[in-house]
Amino acid sequence: MKKDYSLQGLNTMGFNVIAKYFCEVNSLDDMKKLIDDKTFKESKKLFLGGGSNILFTDEYFDGIVIYSNLKGIKISESQQSTDKEFPQFLNSSTPEFLTVRCMSGEVWKDFVDFTVSNNLYGLENLVDIPGSVGAAPVQNIGAYGSEVKDCITKVYTIDIESGEERVFENEECEFAYRNSIFKKEENKKYFIYAIDFRLKRNAELKLEYGNIKDYLSKKNIKSPTLSDVASAIKTIRAEKLPEVGVVGSVGSFFQNPIVDVDKYQSIKETYPEVPSYPNDNGVKIPAGWLIDKSGWKGYRENHVGVWDKQALVLVHYGGGRPEEILNLMTKIQESVKEKFGIEIKLEVNLV
Ligand SMILES: Cc1cc2nc3c(=O)[nH]c(=O)nc-3n(C[C@H](O)[C@H](O)[C@H](O)COP(=O)(O)OP(=O)(O)OC[C@H]3O[C@@H](n4cnc5c(N)ncnc54)[C@H](O)[C@@H]3O)c2cc1C
Predict the structure, then answer these.
(1) Could you say which of 13, 67, 305, 311 would form a disulfide bridge with 297 (CB–CB 3.0 to 4.6 Å)?
(2) DSSP code string of 256-272
(3) Which one, of 194, 190, 199, 10, lies nearest residue 99 by Cα?
């Protein structure tokens, strides 16, 4: 347990936050020992992966940060397989679906690259999302028409209050748009230590969303492979989003609001071009579009601002404080509310 630990490299906003205590978990035994520790029992606790979906609201975290450094990827049916042996399981007799177990401290991008290079389908549209594997189910990460919930079968956890293990089946995770059971306050006691993913050896690629098709046709790729799609999405993302470690951000700061059909129609009267995605609960309107139309795209105020290529992304240019982002966040929420009568909620977790 380290004291007064800087989290500057562990939050992609890049604020110099100091944690009172910081613990790296390298084994399940470590976690179990930690649970019996007196300081641990008495402190406020926070699980932290890459800090790419967390905004610290203060520069001091008065509690314990628990960081998963649990590593390993294996075919879950085979206790023997390890990263290195993995490809030899993929031969002509391998079944159509494989369950791959990944430990929570693996880096998400590396895990997706690993599945793509082993020709396993399912996670390719989620390529290059920053952060850890352990955080992926927490907000049910999604991008380019895919959500991680569609590949998760089990989430393995330890309840840090009781020390008991609990395995959540997919249906128990209450997955929804950028949401799951793990986001509820009362469930923040479940430390995710591993996840089972069900991946397919052959599948149809999802090319409908965003400009994947345009990109492929510009490159003259007529029958894209799994890795063509993954690299297309990597390039498109890199063009649109700030580079982690260079400009501070947490990706999408707000969730896309879902409005009722009447509201959508009233916006459409003034803005016929309004992008819209109807679903069972109404019509989803991109929050980035609402923020852009409210005049914020490219706005800068001292150390913080709104990314000029994607208005959904609030950025920290360095040297700033969390309250600057919080002020900007409030101003944007108020202005979207005033212009469109829509409340935009946070995608980022405030801590
Ligand atoms: C440039 C950029 C682009 C992004 N693009 C996308 C995108 O396309 N789609 C998308 O969905 N997200 C995106 N994000 C958001 C973010 O990358 C994801 O939400 C990611 O899953 C967060 O992972 P993390 O390890 O950084 O989690 P953290 O930010 O460290 O934590 C997020 C939450 O998960 C909890 N948590 C972390 N680890 C554990 C654990 N082991 N057990 C239990 N709880 C845990 C934390 O307590 C916290 O509540 C983007 C972020 C950035 C900076």
Answers:
(1) 311
(2) PPEE-HHHHHHHHHH-T
(3) 199
pTM for the whole structure? 0.94
Structural domain for 34, as ranges: 2-68
Mean pLDDT of the chain: 93
Q: Give the pLDDT mean for 286-296.
A: 97
Provide the pLDDT for residue 279.
Answer: 85
Which amino acid does the sequence have at 186?
Answer: E
CA of residue 52 to ligand 1 center, whole Å: 5
- Does 226 map to a domain? no
- Among residues 70, 65, 66, 69, the alpha carbon closest in space to that of 20 is found at 65
* Secondary element (H or E) of residue 61: strand 60-68
Binning the chain into helix, strand and coil, the percentages to the nearest 5 are: 30, 25, 45
The pLDDT of residue 89: 59
Which residue minimizes the CA distance to atom 51 of ligand 1? 251
Q: Is the pLDDT of residue 92 over 80?
A: no
pLDDT tens by residue, 111-142: 999 999 989 999 999 999 999 999 999 999 99
239 is catalytic: no
CATH number at residue 40: 3.30.43.10
Q: Cβ(66) to ligand 1 under 6 A? A: no
Residue 178 annotated in active site: yes
Number of domains in the chain: 3
Which residue do the tokens 């929050």 mark?
287
Q: 14 alpha carbon to ligand 1 midpoint, in Å? A: 15
Count the Cβ atoms, other than its own, within 10 Å of residue 185.
6
Catalytic annotation, pick one of 81, 178, 180, 249: 178
- The two beta strands, 190-200 and 152-159, are antiparallel
